[in-house]
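quick one, 374 residues, struct below
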Amino acid sequence: MSDGFDELFVEFSQELRSVGLVIGSDDVISFCQAAAELDPTDVMDIYWSGRTTLIRRRDNIPTYNAKFQEFFLDISETETDQRKVKIKASVSTTATLEVPNVEEGQPGDSEEESKMGFMAATNDLWRSKAFAECTPQELASLRKMISTLRLSPPIRKTRRLQSVSKGTRLDMRKMVRETMRAHGEPRELFYNKRKEKLRTIIFILDVSGSMADYSRNLLQMAYSARRANAKVEVFCFGTRLTRITKLLSKRSPDEAMEQAGASVLDWDGGTRIGDSVRTFIKDWGRTRVGRGSIVIICSDGLDRGDPAVLAKAMEELARIAYRVLWMNPHKGDALQFVPNTMGMMIADPFIDEVVSGHNLKSLEEFSRKLTAIR
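---
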């Protein structure tokens, strides 16, 4: 296990022994192995790994809950153990453990389970807070929340047909064949409908210096979308375009982000939107990946490239893609957004919709809007 989390879990097991719980060395090894198979930085994964491997008696659960709360969650703001700080940051809000009532004879004892409780007011506050205004600990928690977003690609109908048991469209070919087999007396009706398939979603993320406050969180959203569905392609650009789709297939988000950052050599550099979009069209736009897809460009529109190149590239992209969406964090909560950068002004005639991505609430609204596209 990386970053010394196994030593931390051994220390937690010793804390449990100090309050009278009987825990063997094999139990501790099983605990560390279980946490390593899950996410050793996620507080819920740690809780259930320890709960299932270290606790054998139901009446020990309240003691386990209290010690878990004290060891992992009730830490001060000056805590020096970065492992605990990272685990605490995995909860989206101030968390407490709700200890179940385990007194015998009360109804519902067999179904009652302990769970993590969260303060909804703080949760809502963070959801509406701009990424640029968040502290590093708040950003770490928000990224955990972003990882739960489910960006489902919209469905489109194809030209191919498939047989169905009931419908409104008769399958005339099959009807004719069955009629001939039955010597002119068909015994049942047959129907078909057009097949449906998912549209490809393409993220083109600006990772230049002007997007530093937002690019890591938007990349987390793209990672979550890619992990949930294979019909997602992800590109990053600064002065040039880099495809990172395969890198985001890693199980660990931290590992995926680290490798993606290492592969994009112009991270936090300048911006050439037109050249990057032109590269996308040349290498992927005219393939099955690009045609009929939903392209989401995440950028503030600050461009150092040739305006004529951007205008031509956006015009061609609008012809190839089914929808072109532009996510600009500087839009904020404004209902009426007027482009105020050269890149946005040039691209505006070829954009179907400008959306915001400055906080978690705007990303949640965007995920619902994306699924509803038809």
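DSSP finds 14 helices and ten strands in the chain.
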